[in-house]
Amino acid sequence: QLGNNEAFRVSFKQLGSKVPDQLVALGQAVQLRSLPLDGTIQFRIYVCPAGGGISRRPEEPRICGERRIPVHRLVLRYQASLYHTWVLLESPGLEDSVASVSLGMGSDSGEIFDQAVINGPRQLFQPKACISIIRAADLPGSGKVVWAEDAPKEHRIAHWASLLLSQQQHAVMSAALFLQNGSQGQSQGQGQGQGNGDKQKSQELQEMARAHAEELNELKARLSRAAQAVDDQETEELR
Known about the structure:
With 239 residues, the chain is of the alpha+beta class.
């Protein structure tokens, strides 16, 4: 919760880099250069004095949460593109603690990130952030990560999966908020009957989420097959 004269700031950097966190305002783009495939992106949300902390490190920032994004997972599973995607935050250093406890038990940073994306729209009262990540070459001329209706066809195809994931998340979040508001508004005498209705709605929500996930996976497979077909055709024409 923000106090008087406080504002949120965000930092993105490669995990392990000696460069100190550079804090920017929400909505401002941050460019990371030369990320290795086996690297990890770390982003953090801070609370700083309003009007301060932009592009420099404040003396005493307050960290609200952080999330680590394995670059290999971002590339292979999300096609190096996240579009207005909700991600759960965790306490700083928590993933290191979990990794040390789970050492030798098959703990996977990619799976941890996947769960943060899956639960982003579902855990309504947990700290979360809505982020977008794309290749620098794909950033629109406006500098804003907003897909325009008149975008080139190849651009729409390349980023369709990330747009669909965002739509899926917001549909799930809207349904979860609807259920939460309905649950808070029920009277004491109608608690049991309404509770049964909420359980049914919750099951419907889960079915909808599974259907969206299957649709997203099918779309990714179709895009992969289409890209392979284009590559094969270009190879054949060069022969």
